[in-house]
Amino acid sequence: MAQIIDPLPTTAEQYVLCCYVNATSKIQVVRISNIPNWYFERVVFPGQRLVFEALPQAQLEVHCGMMASAILADTILCDRLRIESELEADFGLEAAPNQHPAEPLAAVEAR
C-alpha cells in the first residue's frame, strides 16, 4: 500500500497495516504524534473507514468535538488496529514483518 502523503520514516523496518472506523455520527480528527520525524493527521467522517500504515508502537489519537474545539476522546495502539494478520489468514500469505513500505506486494508474494 503506497502512502504517498506523509510516508513512514525511511528508518522504519517494520510496519503494520491498520484500519480505523469512525463509528460515531461526528467528524473526527485522528493523528499519530508519538513517532519522531513523522506527521500523520487525517479527518475521518462518520462511517468512514481509514486504512493506513504505521509503526507497531505508534499511538492513534482520536479527537472529536464541535466547531473550533477538539477533545482527545481515545488513544489506540496501532498494533491493535492491525489488519495484516486477518488478510494473511484469508489469503494464506506469509507474514513479512521486515518488508519496507515501498516494497510492492508482488515482491512479497514471490518470496
From TrEMBL:
<dbReference type="Pfam" id="PF08865">
    <property type="entry name" value="DUF1830"/>
</dbReference>
<dbReference type="InterPro" id="IPR014964">
    <property type="entry name" value="DUF1830"/>
</dbReference>
<protein>
    <submittedName>
        <fullName>DUF1830 domain-containing protein</fullName>
    </submittedName>
</protein>
